[in-house]
Amino acid sequence: MIDYRSDNTGRAAPEILDALIAANHGTALGYGADEWTARLQNRFAELFETRVRVFPVATGTAANALSLAASAPPWGNVFCAAAAHINTAEANAAGFFGGGIKLVPVPGDDGKIDAGALAAALAGYPPEQPHRGKAAAVSLTQATDLGAVYRLDEVRAVADVAKSCGLHVHMDGARFANALARLQCSPADLSWRAGVDILSFGATKNGGALCDAIVVFKPELADGLAVQLRRAGQVWSKMRFASAQLMAYVENDLWLRLATQSNRAAARVAAGLDAAPGIKLVAPVDANEIFLELPHGVMDAVEADGFQFYRRSATLARFVCRFDVTDEDADALAASLRRHCAAPARAAG
Amino acid sequence: MIDYRSDNTGRAAPEILDALIAANHGTALGYGADEWTARLQNRFAELFETRVRVFPVATGTAANALSLAASAPPWGNVFCAAAAHINTAEANAAGFFGGGIKLVPVPGDDGKIDAGALAAALAGYPPEQPHRGKAAAVSLTQATDLGAVYRLDEVRAVADVAKSCGLHVHMDGARFANALARLQCSPADLSWRAGVDILSFGATKNGGALCDAIVVFKPELADGLAVQLRRAGQVWSKMRFASAQLMAYVENDLWLRLATQSNRAAARVAAGLDAAPGIKLVAPVDANEIFLELPHGVMDAVEADGFQFYRRSATLARFVCRFDVTDEDADALAASLRRHCAAPARAAG
Amino acid sequence: MIDYRSDNTGRAAPEILDALIAANHGTALGYGADEWTARLQNRFAELFETRVRVFPVATGTAANALSLAASAPPWGNVFCAAAAHINTAEANAAGFFGGGIKLVPVPGDDGKIDAGALAAALAGYPPEQPHRGKAAAVSLTQATDLGAVYRLDEVRAVADVAKSCGLHVHMDGARFANALARLQCSPADLSWRAGVDILSFGATKNGGALCDAIVVFKPELADGLAVQLRRAGQVWSKMRFASAQLMAYVENDLWLRLATQSNRAAARVAAGLDAAPGIKLVAPVDANEIFLELPHGVMDAVEADGFQFYRRSATLARFVCRFDVTDEDADALAASLRRHCAAPARAAG
Amino acid sequence: MIDYRSDNTGRAAPEILDALIAANHGTALGYGADEWTARLQNRFAELFETRVRVFPVATGTAANALSLAASAPPWGNVFCAAAAHINTAEANAAGFFGGGIKLVPVPGDDGKIDAGALAAALAGYPPEQPHRGKAAAVSLTQATDLGAVYRLDEVRAVADVAKSCGLHVHMDGARFANALARLQCSPADLSWRAGVDILSFGATKNGGALCDAIVVFKPELADGLAVQLRRAGQVWSKMRFASAQLMAYVENDLWLRLATQSNRAAARVAAGLDAAPGIKLVAPVDANEIFLELPHGVMDAVEADGFQFYRRSATLARFVCRFDVTDEDADALAASLRRHCAAPARAAG
Question: Each residue of D274-315: pLDDT tens digit?
Fold first, then answer.
């Protein structure tokens, strides 16, 4: 079987686990008061070309929910794409950590928020109205949950609308590295320079193991976050083992190399499908995910060929490429899809 | 410097980190649907001699707060020792995860809950009164936050009172292994056989790295816990790396060997203090922690000798032994304490 | 000016305020342990032809949010119409009281939930999936937020789907009396006999003053509700003054008479619009509200004629009839609308 | 029977109910946008000699919990007297509304917080420590839950300590009028001039019926409070009926006259007990409550004489005087107590 089910079914990059072992010497203060975590702050300040606060957390869900809780009061509304992971797959963690925050879907293409649609939605929140709660933040998923990547000007357009109404801007960067690899821009360009105030910095999906991080660009959003994280059970007492993973993740551009590999594999699959009849790409393959509308029977046939993937509906399939997908794997998938789409009736039989 | 500051300033047992590397092959379903996590369920069922549900979590705070949230409604009161970690050091995580759960301190010696005092407290909750909230659960810290260990009959006495009033029984087992090593009883004896319904299973303080666990004995307390953990950001997508740590932790009795070593070191320090003038043990040294009331000036002098430890007040010092404290380290600490207590005035100068 | 802005801009029925004065003698135990509140339980048991628990609360928002919090765990999803008041106008009170409950809109016509659409939505919640939270409850608004009334078979159809999947059924009965008056059925028929487990029993919009109520049909949903209400600040210490209002509200069918009057006024307006060009009824006028899509300029013209109402958008107007709207008022509104719709261009000029 | 059970067992002042009826004419915008509520703002600004925001709420519990939620982040600690109503009798409403706020008892006499003890407690919160949560606010109960009244300098001393550490100052003024009547000072003196930032303005216990209020002196604490109240189900849609009660409550000094009467009755009882053997006043009788330690058997005997009151323990009785307690009632209670305490043995027989 070749596994295209998810980013998270895969291995960790060996460099990241090696870093755990390398950190296992001597004693170090607990709860983030160690040297590894101190170095992490500096390393990320370099990486993002500005002063930041970095908080390692166990999961992307924690990163998102705590970022949103820092960006919105309990009576706040957070605008996001309908397809956003925070809205569809995190069991309303944002509502929980945020004490009742409400997620409000905003239309857009390819899993993106459309800036104009956000402006239209915000028009429904005149000053002083209490009935809908407060318009407090917007959350962009980069890359999107349909595999597309916001261009810098698209991020900026959404952020501009948000800021003109006093909203904070969060980016769910579960696949931030994939977006960077796609856009070939700097981390700063894709975050604070484009208007992002707080970032869920994903590592797990891109070769990480047991931690992601919150990166705060707007200092006041970090107020209270250290305590909030503590009571959220997200501050490891042996934090060095988390910080060491994140250091290894960005060391020598490991993260960008991994993301480049997984993006390239997805692009290779997509290229291999070109001109195949009956296959519909749901969104541009900008990162490492491919969403396909497929004729009836094709999913069964592709699975019978030995490929694992998720079925989002009876006709919508998701294929995710990880950093260790080989060219052969990619070509094999494309071939299987092409073959069965060319003969869907037989496949269904 | 010799570090007696905390359990969590120490290294992980190498076996535990090696297990991460050993788990880094192939693909595995995310969010706990992997083979490692399945095996963990079976392994813990053997270990506890009964069917259990095991949920790996990032931290002991998460284990405690989520266990209590599963044991009490948001309007519940949870009884604990005043010194309990949940009450003094977890930023009211129980109140947060539990949607407003209230912790109610109950008197007792050595950081324990006294069963009689619990009964007296519960007398203040007549049926149908709404004003104080509902008496919902009791939480015992084993070993206690003053370094003592509940005997089995003491656990049972508290649990009996609790159950006679319909309360659930939680054990904060951040140092569960140390207690087991002390009592020389089985994990089952110290948990469900003594009346414990849900256990925070600590690993980090005893040579673990990045995870602890919740062990549920009363099945209905696990209802909803899988979803609750998901939205609490405590379900790693690459869960195998957590489950593998916990498997290694109990493999070949590693956990008990580590705890035996740290307990022995603490006992050795305590024995070395025997008959020393001016030193007052705050509680029996049953596990790996030593709490001492010391004459004025002694703490400065001991620190000047090269020992690191925490000052809980101007006269109360805490020394924590980890699994890798050597006999020489222990003897050196005892000697330093004896020397300075014998001459406290000079020390203060 | 003739005020069609809202139910709540109106007076209370004098009988209800008189009841406050009548209750103001002697002493009575606090927090609902008084005789008025005891009688209320019995009176509502008669009214609903079954044993119920009745909890007076200050507002409909409290009734809804606390009912939903009793019907769903914090990780629960509650299905409702997109137009539902709980989803659009209560500042996410359900999310707050429910500790992070999520509202999930379900399609349907006229502000109703379509039973088939609910079934389709529930298909997305396979057993054991944690990512979307738990499908926990459905909430029907009766009359709907577009002025329509669910027929009994429509309520039952939704309830049947819900119950087949283990969901609880809540009815937001802010305009329950209007629905009863429309359907000419018994309170029991429209609630528990149709599958409703817990009801927000509205009074304020229909001539009440300062309280609504929660009526619980499924006894286990009342577990903990007394404490939950206490800590929610919804248990008046002088509860007799709330219970007395509710007693007066149902005494001698006052509530049904009031609702009949407001329904009749709305029907009279609607009848008066018949065959008027350019006016589009958004939904059937089943209760006391009229939603109209109007040509450009008509709203300004009608307002200039001395009518107050709410503009839901540039073209969507809402007119609400209260119990004290006279036939003359109703005819005057219809005439104004007819006149300006017949000549929209001039009106806009 | 003569009822000394509680403030809330009593009648409302007729003026307050009459105000409801007087307000029942015409139409008025909902949710507090009416003229009565606008006038209330101005009236309270006069009363307190400064700009304030006044928010009517249904209960004192709501006033307290929402005030504290406005004064502390979810990870905040609120310091209060152990005997404080918020700590003993409101089902942890503060923890609920505050998203996990923790109440921390501070020692003091007569139900007061001792300023020195508060300073000592705050020393345990060094900057940047996350483990205990953030020291965020202090709450004083005036009059206290043992019937004493803070002098102005006592309020100021606590507020000074609080403010020197960045805490907000809340006053639970469930019996604010009784304290004013005792101290013969202005509302401004006893609130913002003494350092109070936000006040639970009690009316119910002092002749009110169905509402209390939050009065905000520090404008930034009102940020978001309007929305928070809306989603807390504490904003009546027919708010005029709440605001009218509060207007009547302060009109022509009604509140001070009522409080003066209940204080005087309590003082008369206390004076009548003077020099009676065996009776121990638990705290000074500064307001309308009398707490007595009584010899065994006395409570039964006094009850047999026809007096109703609450037993706080086997030997601690509470007697509460309301505005309508007559001199005869007061003298009768004192006589009964004197008589039975003079012969406690016989009484116990």
Answer: 878 889 999 999 999 999 999 989 999 999 999 999 999 999
Q: Which residues of chain A have pLDDT under 70?
A: 344-349
Q: Is there a common fold for D2-6+254-348 and D13-252?
A: no
What fold does the segment set D13-252 form as a domain?
Aspartate Aminotransferase; domain 2 (3.40.640)
Residue C347: predicted pLDDT: 43
Question: CA-nearest residue of chain C to A312?
Answer: C124
| A-chain residues near D73 (CB < 8 A) | 224, 227
- What is the sign, positive or negative, of the torsion defined by CA atoms of C83, C88, C90, C92? positive
Suggest the residue from B8, B92, B102 to mutate for an interface test with chain D (most D CBs closer than 10 A).
B92
A30 touches chain D (CB under 8 A): no
* Contact assessment for residue B81 and residue B111, using Cβ atoms and an 8 Å cutoff: yes
Alpha-carbon distance D126 to nearest alpha carbon in chain C (angstroms): 31
Residue C343 has pLDDT above 80, yes or no: no
Top-level class of domain B2-6+259-348: alpha beta
**CATH, domain range B13-253:** 3.40.640.10
CA distance C342 to chain D (A): 30
Q: C35 pairs with which residues across the strands?
A: none
CB of C96 within 8 Å of any CB in chain B?
no
Q: What is the pLDDT of residue A344?
A: 52
- The pLDDT of residue B346 is above 70: no
Question: For domain A15-253, is the CATH number 3.40.640.10?
Answer: yes
User: pLDDT of D37-78, one tens digit each?
Assistant: 999 999 999 999 999 999 999 999 999 999 999 999 999 999
For the record, the structure tokens of B216 come out as 């549920």
Share of chain A above pLDDT 90, in %: 94
Residue D285 contacts residue D147 (beta carbons within 8 Å) = yes
Give the dihedral of Cα atoms C333, C336, C341, C343; nearest 10 deg: 180
Q: Which residue of B has its CA nearest to A227?
A: B91
Does C14 lie at the interface with B, CB-CB under 8 angstroms?
A: no
> How many residues can be counted in chain A?
349
Contacts of C220 (CB under 8 A, 6+ apart): none
Q: What is the chain D residue with the closest CA to B65?
A: D100
Q: Measure C97 CA to nearest chain D CA, in Å.
A: 8
Per-residue pLDDT, B349: 40
Taking one residue from B and the other from C, the number of pairs with CB-CB distance under 8 angstroms is 50
Tell me the one-letter amino acid at B164: S
Q: How confident is the model at residue C344 (pLDDT cuts 50, 70, 90)?
A: low
On the question of pLDDT at C275 being above 80, the answer is no
d(CA D211, CA D208): 7
Task: Mutate one of D61, D78, D88, D92 to test the B interface: name it (highest B CB count within 10 A).
Answer: D92
Domain boundaries, chain A: 2-6+254-348, 15-253
Question: CA–CA separation, B244 vs B68, rounded Å?
Answer: 25
**Predicted confidence (pLDDT) at residue D347 exceeds the cutoff of 60:** no
DSSP letter (8 states) at residue D326: -
Question: By the CB < 8 Å criterion, does A102 face chain C?
Answer: yes
Measured CA distances, C217 to C50, C186, D287 (Å): 8, 15, 44
Architecture in CATH of D2-6+254-348: Alpha-Beta Complex (3.90)
Q: What is the pLDDT of residues D136-160, one digit of tens each?
A: 999 999 999 999 999 999 999 999 9
- The answer to whether residue D102 neighbours chain B at the CB level (below 8 Å) is yes
DSSP per residue over D16-38, as a string? HHHHHHHT-SS---STT-SHHHH
**More reliable by pLDDT, B345 or D245:** D245
Beta strands per DSSP E along chain D: 2-3, 53-57, 76-81, 102-106, 134-141, 168-173, 198-201, 212-216, 280-281, 289-293, 307-308, 310-311, 316-320
* Per-residue confidence band for D344, with pLDDT thresholds at 50, 70 and 90: low
